[in-house]
Amino acid sequence: MRSAVDRGINFMDNCWDYYLGESELRMGVALRDGYRQKVFLMSKFDGRTKDAAARQIDESLKRLQTDHLDLIQYHENIRMEDPDRFFAANGPVEALMEAKKAGKIRYIGFTGHKDPLVHVRMLDVAALRGFHFDTCQMPLNLMDAHFRSFEHLVLPRLVEQGIGVLGMKSMGDGNLLKSGRVEPVECLHYALNLPTSVVITGCERMAILDQAIEAARTFQPLTGAQVSAMLGKTGDVAMTGEFEPFKTTQQFDGTAQHPQWMA
Question: 72-99 burial by CB neighbour count: b if 16+ within 10 A, else e?
């Protein structure tokens, strides 16, 4: 983590539930000795009630050894009722507004990977409530462009509304690479070419960090012909969702597998 920061990466992604809190604990240690001040620190929470959300935010702050998060996000907006839970009386939005007033958080967003229509509904409900999200995190990759596409259905609305775009799963947790149609840096370049505020990519070992740095160093805006060529290689294998199992299975649905996290 410190090598990443020293080499220019300054956005840190985390979540209250990652490895049952171990990810936040490790990042908290890494961000000692002045490193916290060098990064934009984000985490996420699962609580679907005011009390659960407030408790998880405080636990994240303690683990990360910081007095504030630059961004907190409502995790796994994957069910059509999740927007209703967010805005319900004694729901998470009340905890977030109190935490923001107390200086514990700066910005508020939401995430999800299942179905772009759930994100659309969150934006619709937010508009009805007069609430403006600062960010939205979602899959953006060479398969998503063809299948249940966040790029086509959600991205334009985020740009229009001035909501920060956090692209994730550029390689679909490695699943896109299993298709044999795409290469890692190619996947990162495609995501970087979209109107993203940041492209989040997991760096679980030094070789993968080197790969991310190289992708950023070599990136140039893609031409229309280059984008068409990339999409042409993935269209036929994308349509079943086989290489985006986070959309078609519960494999990545932490709150579905652990409903107690939502309280």
Answer: bbbbbbbbeebbebbbeeebbbbbbeeb
